[in-house]
Design goal:
Two copies of one chain form a homodimer. Chain A has about 230 residues and is of the alpha+beta class. The first copy, chain A, has two domains: about 130 residues, Nucleoside Triphosphate Pyrophosphohydrolase (Alpha-Beta Complex), CATH 3.90.79; about 70 residues, Winged helix-like DNA-binding domain superfamily/Winged helix DNA-binding domain (Arc Repressor Mutant, subunit A, Orthogonal Bundle), CATH 1.10.10. Helices cover about 25% and strands about 30% of the residues of chain A. Chain A is built from four helices and nine strands; from the N terminus they run ββββαβββαααββ. In chain A, strands 1, 2, 3, 4, 5, 6 and 7 form a seven-stranded mixed beta sheet that branches. A two-stranded antiparallel ribbon of chain A has the order 8-9. In chain A, a hairpin with a 7-residue loop joins strand 5 and strand 6. The first copy, chain A, starts with 12 loop residues before the first strand and ends in a 17-residue tail after the last strand. Chains A and B meet through strand 1, strand 5 and strand 6 of A and strand 1, strand 5 and strand 6 of B. Chains A, B: Its EC number is 3.6.1.55. Chains A, B: It holds the Pfam family NUDIX. Chains A, B: This is 8-oxo-dGTP diphosphatase. Chains A, B: InterPro entries: NUDIX_hydrolase-like_dom_sf, NUDIX_hydrolase_dom, WH-like_DNA-bd_sf, WH_DNA-bd_sf, WHD_NrtR. Chains A, B: GO terms for molecular function: 8-oxo-7,8-dihydrodeoxyguanosine triphosphate pyrophosphatase activity.
Chain lengths: ~230, ~230
Amino acid sequence: MTTSTNSEAGNKLICTVDVVLLSLSEGQLRVLLLKREREPFAGAWALPGGYVHIGEDQGCEDAAQRVLRQKAGLESPYLEQLASFSGPARDPRGWSVSVAYFALVPHPEEALPGQQWLPVDRLPQLPFDHGSIVATAVERVRSKSQYSSLPVHLCPEPFTISQLHAVYETLLGEPINTVSFRRKLDELAILEPVVGEKRTEGAHRPAQLYRVRAEFRQRLRLVGRGLNR
Amino acid sequence: MTTSTNSEAGNKLICTVDVVLLSLSEGQLRVLLLKREREPFAGAWALPGGYVHIGEDQGCEDAAQRVLRQKAGLESPYLEQLASFSGPARDPRGWSVSVAYFALVPHPEEALPGQQWLPVDRLPQLPFDHGSIVATAVERVRSKSQYSSLPVHLCPEPFTISQLHAVYETLLGEPINTVSFRRKLDELAILEPVVGEKRTEGAHRPAQLYRVRAEFRQRLRLVGRGLNR
């Protein structure tokens, strides 16, 4: 063990990552919380996170993907850096910097033991500054959803255009004109039809099913104007 | 000195901040580079930056403001977090995470010894990953300039609307319709007239001078649609 150049007498610097993993279920944006097994805050529900492992991680994003793999069983979902949160008081273990990420996934069939998906608008008080990290992520996701492909990552594939439209409306919290929405989707050019697959919705004729083109699974696509303009 | 929890045998974790300080001069967006006094890369031109001081700094933003004060003589300019850059290879001293910020100031009268302001589009190769940090900052600033008050911080006060219009056009690299620009400025509501002060520009009648309202010196204001839409 060697000393960190940032450390000073009696204090230490720690570097962690935290991940705001979001999904959509029952018309609500939800965040994954895990029951903490260790101190500090053992037993509390908190964001998946952990120390950067400098012998193993190639960067903080790599650490975030490792945390999702190890703690949530997820392999390479859509992930984006959110912001860093830092200071002497946010973690009782020392002066800490946490590089926070957000990730989006279709809602899983069921939560594993020690996991729960809570609506982002009705969270209890969270340990550390996780409440503030979640609020920042939700604001970022809602704002980016207005002019990007971001919400497709919440939609289980394959999906119809109507299903994707409903996901955008839920995120933006307002109705989106259908014609304008289809035009923006064309502009985004992120979808491909699943050949031969259609789904019957209500009394309508069967609707074409789509999935996200492979090159846009990890890469965001933007439109010039907001989806609802 | 205590060990950092992130440290492993023979390795250490370091945490720094770097600041991309931008200004506009001779029609070009420029970044401040300082001649490095110490290793690594002593003598090279690099971004102002430094270690987080955990006994002193209240967070990484606080560290960035300290760096600007100590290394560039600047007191609280407009500053925003850009992103974190991390990994085992970006700094020869160890596995490092640098929380990067960008700041905007009116171009100073002259550069101090050991400083230079270089056009962002014609930079030499920079040490660490500073080239990539600058590129990320420039992209962010140009993109945010389309729908926010960000560029006002590049304009020496007091200024005329024509001068501010020219700053926006230089940043966006395209002409902006004057009528639409004035309407967006009204929507932003960030300016106040400097009472009794006017400036004569060319053959025109004297133009009113403005400054940024105090509450928007540190806070960004957004418009719903891009300035040029």
